[in-house]
Amino acid sequence: MRFLLLIERGIATNESQGRTSQAADKTLSPKHVLQSHGYEVKLLKYNDPPEKSMDGVDAIVMNLPLSEAEGWRKKLVGHKPMPLLWWCSERTAIASNAFCEDDICVDGILTRDMSNQAVEWALHIGAKQSMERQQWHIEKKQLESRLEERKWIDMAKGILCKIKNVSEAEAYEMLRKQAMNERKRMVDVATSIVKVYQLLQDQK
Q1: What is the largest CA-CA distance in the chain?
Q2: 2-52, pLDDT tens digit by residue?
């Protein structure tokens, strides 16, 4: 993992700061620190579209407050899922104090004082965390889909029990047989039954 995309927010400097202080800040910037550890760093400015900068990137580093992390995750994951790490500096930490109790959506944390080995481990653990997060989202969507299907099937069973005066087991068997005969999924048959029944009820 050697190619990183750095997202930075423009931070205004205090007019009282001298050029020496600004130069020192530059040497401690995420880009400079990560490059000194041997990483290739591509800079994505705050308002740039991300899709053009994602090719060949192994991980994303955000140098901005955590309040903006979820927005960037949603924007970036749609293009290419990858580890998302937060650059924790004094400035970004202070700006993120209000979010320390929230469910933080980053896969790892980097700081300017980390050794080369520490950065490597942070990226490795971040990649593992990112994979687990992606798997969790897939499983969550599958579960939500199954629950939605179950809802339609239960509604259709209730309608059949009422109209046909049969038990739930018999209604389920009717749905199953109709799905087999029509070569459709049971949820599709159930959805059709519910929608037709609701339409007839609305016309009464």
Answers
A1: 86
A2: 899 998 865 433 433 444 444 446 667 899 999 999 999 988 866 667 666
Confidence of residue 100 (pLDDT cuts 50, 70, 90): low
Which fold would CATH assign to domain 3-114? Rossmann fold (3.40.50)
Domain with CATH 3.40.50 in the chain: 3-114
For 146, other C-beta atoms within 10 Å of its C-beta total 11
Q: Cβ contacts of residue 23 below 8 Å, gap of 6+?
A: none
CATH number of 143-203: 1.10.10.10
Region(s) of the chain under CATH 1.10.10.10: 143-203
Confidence at 172, pLDDT banded by 50, 70, 90: very high
> To which residue do tokens 């320390």 refer?
100
Q: What does the alpha-carbon distance between residue 57 and residue 123 come to, in Å, rounded to a whole number?
A: 13
Alpha helices in the chain (DSSP H): 19-27, 30-36, 69-77, 90-95, 116-164, 168-182, 186-203
Cβ count near 34 (within 10 Å) = 20
Per the confidence metrics, is the pTM higher than 0.70? no
